[in-house]
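Following up on my earlier thread - several people asked me to post the actual chain instead of describing it. Fair enough. Here it is, all 157 residues.
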Amino acid sequence: MSTLIARTTSRSIVRDANSPGDTGPVEEGPLDADSSIRGDVSTEPGSVHVISGIDHIRIILAGEIDADLAGDLQDATTAVERSGLPVEVDTHHVTFMDSSGVAFLARLATRSSYRVRLLNVPPTVRFLLEVTRIGELLDVAEDSADRSRTGPPDDVA
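Reply from S.P.:
Thanks for posting it. Predicted structure:
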């Protein structure tokens, strides 16, 4: 199955072939466990990229994750809720995160049917996860090579 990627100036939303609506220029390509987002993942102001695969969703956060991205973060949360798939969040390119980003991670953790997995967590984000204790709700991968899937959270059965 190939995946369609719709590009906008502030974010990329991946839609499958059944997604409604015209979303602008489209790039086609598969998503697998080792794939990375095609195109530039900017470390400028901030961006949210949602990549929907067959068996999981990957969200790539880049740059400054703050209140300016509230709408994009909400759209990403909605995409996860609608999909019912496991989610991975790659934070490698995050340079700053305020309470909006922390709240986003908490929302994902509480609304996803699966335990949310964080990949490539930089020290600034790791610090916030520890201080807020949100990290206790998430699986924080020590290495991006660790791609094993997680099941439903312990309290969901």
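The beta strands are 3-7, 11-15, 26-29, 46-52, 57-65, 87-97, 117-119, 139-140. That should answer part of your original question.
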